[in-house]
Amino acid sequence: MRLSDGEARGVVGDTYFTWSDLPAWAPAAAAAIVALIVGFCIARLRSSGRRIAPARPDATSSQVRDLQKTISRLESDNQALANLFQLLPEYTKKMSSRIARREIPMHVIRVVEQMFAPSQILIFLLEERLGKFALVQQLGLPPDFPKSFLVGPGEGRIGWAAQTGMAMDTDDFIREKRLAGANFEMPSHFPFRIELCAPMMHEDKVRGIISVGGITRHYKHEKAILGLIADQGSIALYNHDLFTKTQEMANCDGLTKLFNKRFFLERLSSVILEASKGHHPFSVFIFDLDNFKHYNDTQGHQAGDEVLRTTGELVRSALRPDDFAARYGGEEFIVLLGHAPKEGAMEQAERIRALVANHPFPNREAQPLRRVSLSGGVATYPDDGLAGADLIAAADAALYRAKRAGRDKVFASEPKYFSDETEDPVYNVQNG
């Protein structure tokens, strides 16, 4: 059958039909169905877009922040390594050389300050006689803070780090307090800011503690960095102690265990050279035991040797780290008081005099003064002399004045134009 141009046809089986044969409502129904499908699809797409679009910027922003944190941390770690590699060679070289014990904390503070830029640094060193750690160098404490401050093992954060022998930060202290019940409470006059501590430890012996507070440059491995600085400091302290012990064995008097005269004079020359460069004072204290010949004659030479040996022990117990003493000859002793002006030297000399006078020597009541005593003189560089011989002569002259004044006294050297002596002083008074 032929169809006109305006008609369409379909095939169902072998039967042809035209759209005009369909009911009148069929096209409208089909159009409605198509419209519903298209509308449903559009709605899904819009809904999906509303859910995904806002989430994508948030995820990207979070990733950017994480990436920025990572970059910042890497830059900080890189800066830490750069600073450490720059400072470590010179620091290691200095710590491995022969330096005075008092200089070691100064070099430690300098490196710690450059690495961490803290507001406070404390250096404690072990005082063997007391079994405690003494504050020997500091940065950031009030000017009126006591110069001699002691901390025992287990006392506060510093003492706890010394007791455990481990580098510790704030998180470690909090954990120790919670798990081990550690007590870090300190007196109200304890103005220390402690964020990081590291022991200066060598051969299982803690020789000192480094404490840092108010850190402005934090690093990922800051405990390890401070530990490395502390290890170099402990090696320097160990080398100093080892050298000192070896030196003592070669240069000590066998009876008193003090240095001998020869070594004292050599050391005095070195100290004068250092003092002339640094423009700092030091003092010489020379003394002998009063009426020592009388003690030897009445108690015997063996008892006299015991008095000399005990006097050596008493002198050693009173020495500070920068001091050293020698048996000058017979019953005469000499002490170099490092970095001590006249007033401080007199206080130290008086302390030694009192130690000897109050010691219960056997049969001391048989002595003319009813005790074993000493008379001494103090001279100070540069006021009383620029050469070793001049200082010793000035101190010896003051010793002679103490003898004439009744013994068991310590006198300071006086300039000649202040002296009222009419005759020349007589040195090396014999037999006490």
Feature tags:
432 residues; Beta-Lactamase; 10 helices; elongated; 17% strand; disordered N terminus; Alpha-Beta Plaits; 5-stranded mixed β-sheet; alpha+beta; 6-stranded antiparallel β-sheet; disordered C terminus
User: CATH topology of the largest domain, which one?
Assistant: Alpha-Beta Plaits
Order of helices and strands: EEHHEEEHEHEEHHEHHEEHEHE
Fraction in helix = 40-55%
Proportion of strand residues: 15-25%
CATH architecture of the largest domain: 2-Layer Sandwich
List the total number of helices. Answer: 10
Spatial order of strands in the largest sheet: 5-4-3-8-7-6
The CATH homology group name of the largest domain: Reverse transcriptase/Diguanylate cyclase domain
Q: What structural class is derived from the secondary structure elements?
A: alpha+beta
Question: How would you sum up the global shape?
Answer: elongated
Largest sheet: 6 strands, antiparallel
Mean pLDDT value = 83
Distance linking N and C termini: 158 Å
**How many distinct beta strands?**
13
Q: Indicate the CATH class of the largest domain.
A: Alpha Beta
Number of separate structural domains = 3
Q: Poorly predicted ranges (pLDDT <50, ≥5 residues)?
A: 1-12, 418-430
Q: What Rg is obtained from the alpha carbons, in whole angstroms?
A: 42 Å
